[in-house]
Amino acid sequence: MKKAFFLLISILLFASCKPTINTDTARIEILQTEKAFEKMASEKGLAEAFYYFADKNAVISRGNDSLIIGKENIRHYYDINANPNAKLSWTPDFIGVSDCGTLGYTYGKYVFSIQDTSGKSIEHSGIFHTVWKKQNKEWRYVWD
Q1: Strand ranges across the sheet with 103-115
Q2: Which SS3 state, helix, strand or coil, does residue 90 take?
Q3: How distant, in Å, are the alpha carbons of 7, 124, 138 from that of 141?
Q4: Which of 20, 51, 90, 126 is 20–30 Å from 6 (CA)?
Q5: What percent of the chain has pLDDT over 90?
Q6: Euclidean distance between CA atoms 83 and 11, whole angstroms
Q7: CA distance 103 to 131
Q8: How far is 81 from 60, CA to CA, in rounded Å?
């Protein structure tokens, strides 16, 4: 009986020592990461930005619901589909963070624009959803 009581007390003590995470801080970090991601995409191109912010096992879903798996494959996908006239902008409408503060997700609106051969801008808009994972004090996306 004493062993069971000690075990119960030990479990309660360890459970009560769970570190608290400031999810507001994590939300701000994710927003800053989203904005840095968008800025890099604008300045250095989509291939570089999607490569830089990807987890090594990241997955993206693109055209015809194809999955591109892995950081190197994501860079390759954007390299072969690169268009220097393409622009991408987005803003998260919502940022959620796990209780442990190591996973987060965002969703919001994006606008992809490109110039056709006559110089006319063509825009496509939609909704994005990104899942983020904190690694070595930096956020990397695992799904986009």
Answers
A1: 66-69, 54-62, 138-143, 121-135, 103-115, 87-97
A2: strand
A3: 39, 23, 10
A4: 20
A5: 70
A6: 57
A7: 7
A8: 14
| Interatomic CA distance for residues 69 and 82, integer angstroms | 18
Whose structure tokens read 């069971």?
4
What is the length of the chain?
A: 144
Distance CA 66, CA 62 (A): 5
> Contact at 8 Å (CB) between 139 and 109?
no
Report the relative pairing of strands 138-143 and 54-62 from DSSP bridges.
Answer: parallel
pTM: predicted TM-score of the whole model, two decimal places: 0.81
Cβ-count burial of 46 within 10 angstroms (0-12 exposed, 13-18 middle, 19+ buried)?
Answer: buried
Query: And the tokens for 49?
Result: 């930005």
Whether residue 133 contacts residue 101, with contact meaning beta carbons closer than 8 Å, is answered with no
| C-beta of residue 124 within 8 angstroms of C-beta of residue 83 | no
Residue 41 is predicted with a pLDDT of 95
